[in-house]
Amino acid sequence: MRWRVHCGPHRRASTRNIGMAPAHTATARGLRLNHTPHERSRTVDIGYDPASPLSPFEQVRTRIAAMVTGGDLRAGERLPTVRTLASELGLAVNTVARSYRELEAAGIIETRGRQGTFVSSAADHADQAQRRAVADFVRIATDLNLGCDQALTLVAEEFAARGGD
């Protein structure tokens, strides 16, 4: 696995090895995972924006969680060590450690001692549960003769009523 760190379009990528078995490529304030073992090459970005109002730990946590739920990171994939990610992002080790702790508490990642940190297989089950819930909703909406636009409007109203996006 290849790691690539970035900090937006204004930075030029530089390359260096970090010392883990797969080579890593680094720039600043972000991590791009290049997966090549036995599959087509794909790139996954982990990064943070220093200008964002969100704290760095929250940005890292939400980015990794979004990548897992979006399918960019699959169950069983290895994440960089806390120290490696902190070093590459230019963050304190405790900041990244807090992100990992909260992701682990949510069941998104799991730490396997000296083997490292991996995307939890439970996260895959959560994705399947979400897809089942959506399928059930669509089935019920069509049974009630709701069109897609009507159903989405109702969903948006419900989220707004609950204080969500």
Automatic annotation (TrEMBL):
Matching Pfam families:
GntR
* Keywords noted in UniProt: DNA-binding, Transcription, Transcription regulation
Basic residues composition-biased segments: 1-14
Q: Which superkingdom?
A: Bacteria
Cross-referenced InterPro entries: Tscrpt_reg_HTH_GntR (IPR000524), WH-like_DNA-bd_sf (IPR036388), WH_DNA-bd_sf (IPR036390)
- UniProt-listed SMART domains: HTH_GNTR (SM00345)
**What would you give as a GO molecular function for this chain, any one?**
DNA binding
Q: Where is the HTH gntR-type domain?
A: 54-122
Region of interest (Disordered), residue spans: 1-22
Q: Which PANTHER family match?
A: HTH-TYPE TRANSCRIPTIONAL REPRESSOR YTRA
- Record-given protein name: DNA-binding transcriptional regulator YhcF (GntR family)
Q: What's the source species for this entry?
A: Rarobacter incanus
Taxonomic placement: Bacteria, Bacillati, Actinomycetota, Actinomycetes, Micrococcales
